[in-house]
Amino acid sequence: MMNIRYIERRDNAAIEGIIRECLIEFGGNRDGLAWADDSMHDLYTYYNSAANRAYWIVEEDGEVLGGCGIAPFDEENGICELQKMYLSSAIRGQGAAADLLGTALEFARQHYNRCYLETLQTMQAAGRFYLKHGFGLLDAPLAGSEHYACDAWYIKELS
Q1: Rounded to the nearest 5°, which phi and psi values hold at 62?
Q2: Which residues contact 48 (CB under 8 A, 6 or more apart)?
Q3: C-beta of residue 79 within 8 angstroms of C-beta of residue 114
Q4: What is the pLDDT of residues 130-146, one digit of tens each?
Q5: Are 26 and 144 spatial neighbours (Cβ–Cβ below 8 Å)?
Q6: What is the C-alpha separation between 93 and 26, in angstroms, rounded?
Q7: Distance separating alpha carbons of residues 81 and 103, to the nearest angstrom
């Protein structure tokens, strides 16, 4: 049975491995993407450093199979970012992504007005998933984007 829980320090290596595996699969293993983020080796510390950010792990039988996080993008304008939402290929299409997204957006609604995300057009299934779940496609990134190599941007009103 799949379980969603907050990240623990012991999850760092497993979730970093899944994220890097997915980035390689979709051509995202380069600068300007999550691949080069300073926090990749210690997501636990990054996401537990403030009350308005969190990271969730999906696991089955104790094995980490993916995760996603919410962190501030532009707090002044009430915008968070859905970050590092990646699943191992073994569980894609089984509902884990929808469960993770629901958990993340429930948390985001408590702290923010809108949720932003950046990804790659090569992740076509992800793009369809975000549209299905109420995100609107943007023509360009929001000002302040750190992932300059992304080429697909989405936003969702949380109210």
Answers
A1: 80, 0
A2: 7, 54
A3: yes
A4: 999 999 999 999 998 88
A5: no
A6: 17
A7: 14
Q: Residues near 39 by Cβ (< 8 Å), separated by ≥ 6?
A: 45, 46
d(CA 157, CA 159): 6
Per the CB < 8 A criterion, the answer to whether 91 and 107 are in contact is no
Tokens linked to 45:
């510390």
Exposed e or buried b per residue across 121-157, where buried means at least 16 C-beta atoms within 10 angstroms of its C-beta:
eebeebbebbeeeebeeeeebbeeeebeebebbbbbe
- DSSP state letter for 16: H
Give the model confidence (pLDDT) of 61-114 as tens digits: 999 999 999 999 999 999 999 998 888 877 777 778 899 999 999 999 999 999
